[in-house]
Amino acid sequence: MSAKLLEGKRGIIFGALNKDSIAWKVAEQAHAHGAKFVLTNAPIAMRMGEINDLAAATGSEIIPADATSMEDLENLFTKSMEILGGPVDFVLHSIGMSVNVRKGKHYTDMNYDWTVKGFDVSAMSFHRVLQTAYKMDAINEWGSVLALTYMAAQRTFPDYNDMADNKAYLESIARSFGYHYGVKNKVRVNTISQSPTMTTAGSGVKGFDGFISYADKMSPLGNADADDCAAYCISLFSDLTRKVTMQNLYHDGGFSNVGVSDAVMDEFMKDKKE
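Above: the chain's sequence. Below: its structure in token form.
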């Protein structure tokens, strides 16, 4: 690594489950760039993943925390500051879950108990994380907080279901809390709207394989993969982006600004000829 953009910085990374996780890639790259950090995930998620391997590879400690529990989050920030030697410089929120999607419930026939659960895990947890850090003064001046989102917050993707609503609220939290945290301590809060990525969560969406192919054909640069997203996160944790805040940043190879591509039109025309 020729330039260590995060040398001397400390952080907390939520959501590393296995090697397909964007959070996993962020942890690997943050380590390579000189950062020290704590890894965290819900206890049930950690039993499903391989997070111990990641902790060993990056010299990190693991603190289990349910991001929907204020008590767990307070414990997480308290212990993280003890382990790392003070307030952190960056936080990654890479958490998302929809029971309705997992159980195959259509958007027009949702189970609202499941909807509330998904909303709490996927969106409200971001506010909880920020509120806890804000009250505890747990993030240093010019710190950076990122959450991962998807363009279904702005456009309709039928099978993305109630996760689209969750992501819209997540992005709103970044704008609103970004204002207050910026005024208080110059902390930056942004969301990254990533290309469709074959993570454990993403693979649960109906027709996801086909949509990845479609998005790749639509994007002039092609889809951004998990490693690409991790590199973007590192840049936003670094001091090079100190004045970027309250933004929803598209990281999708240009997909979000393309109406139609030649490659997609060729597919339609091929179907017509057949």
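The longest strand covers residues 139-149.
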